[in-house]
Amino acid sequence: MTWRHRSVIDLDCWTREELYFFLDQSRHMENVMDRPVKKVPALRGKMCVNLFFENSTRTRVSFELAEKMLSADVVNWSVSGSSAAKGETMRDTAWTLEAMGADIVVMRHGAVGAAQYLASKLKRGIVLNAGDGTHAHPTQALLDVYTAWKHFGDLEGRKIALVGDVLHSRVARSDVIAFKTMGCEVVLSGPPTLMPREVEQLGVKYDRDPRKAVENADMVYMLRIQRERQQDGLFPSVDEYHRWWGADEELMKYANPGALAMHPGPINRGVEIASEVADGHQSVILEQVRSGVATRMALLYLCGGGAR
């Protein structure tokens, strides 16, 4: 099929056919990761700039690995020491990147819409959104779908329960879009204070009781408590949160026997997930990390011109 996406800000305009095509491309990229020499020349001569205004480990490192495996030239832009820290506007940053010859900009920013704004200012380069505020995290959703697809194949009719801090989670919003596009039933659970008001507008179910939410689920996805994005007092205490909404072996018993335990990382052990689940046989958390490299390779390849 002809790939029609350049910049990727979210997944709301992706079709199921495009997602399945993307998953197949990701599988090919994961095969590259298993080679003795983990490198292909797909993006040789391309310049990728990783522009992270927020702290990140998994996303930033996996993008950098993906770029290098595709033979791109990689620049990690340190925002703390850049002109942005001195007051430079996003518009001027965009023009600076373009003048330097950046072909692909991977950006994480705390402001909703920052990635879309940057993409609108770049005449030639493309933007891949690595997370903008509480809005979207499309590459996390892609790696989550890819991880589930490797286990189940066709995801039509599968059930995923996302439990935790939905209100502040850009992962949750992108996962809802991606898994619904794949034909999954999506159920949300968590404290009412951590649930957006527009849950019904998302076209998903909400159940305050996590046991009911994960009943017969094929995937139990525990969302990280976004302490850096929320005010105090949205739940009484960490211990009470874990008792009510944390994933332990007892909660997992309500899901299907082969259900996957998922988490976007970093893990807050004993808060949203217990160690016996994070390290247990149902956990695919480390698989998600590996999938992140493969799917980001596929995205860079398809959007960055390697497929043309």
UniProtKB/TrEMBL annotation:
Catalytic activity: carbamoyl phosphate + L-aspartate = N-carbamoyl-L-aspartate + phosphate + H(+)
Signal peptide start and end residues: none
Keyword Transferase tagged: yes
Annotated Gene Ontology cellular component terms: cytosol
Pfam families: OTCace, OTCace_N
Entry keyword set: Pyrimidine biosynthesis, Transferase
First-level EC class: transferase
Binding site for L-aspartate: K86, R170, R224
The Aspartate/ornithine carbamoyltransferase Asp/Orn-binding domain, residue ranges: 156-302
Highest taxon of the lineage: Bacteria
Residue ranges occupied by any Aspartate/ornithine carbamoyltransferase carbamoyl-P binding domain in the UniProt entry: 6-148
Binding site for carbamoyl phosphate: R58, T59, R108, H137, Q140, G265, P266
EC numbers for this chain: 2.1.3.2
Entry keyword Transferase: yes
HAMAP family reported in the protein's UniProt record: Asp_carb_tr (MF_00001)
Function (record text): Catalyzes the condensation of carbamoyl phosphate and aspartate to form carbamoyl aspartate and inorganic phosphate, the committed step in the de novo pyrimidine nucleotide biosynthesis pathway.
Family matches, as PANTHER family: ASPARTATE CARBAMOYLTRANSFERASE, ORNITHINE CARBAMOYLTRANSFERASE, MITOCHONDRIAL
Protein family according to the UniProt entry: Belongs to the aspartate/ornithine carbamoyltransferase superfamily. ATCase family.
Known partners and oligomeric status: Heterododecamer (2C3:3R2) of six catalytic PyrB chains organized as two trimers (C3), and six regulatory PyrI chains organized as three dimers (R2).
Protein name (record): Aspartate carbamoyltransferase
Organism: Cloacibacillus porcorum
Gene: pyrB
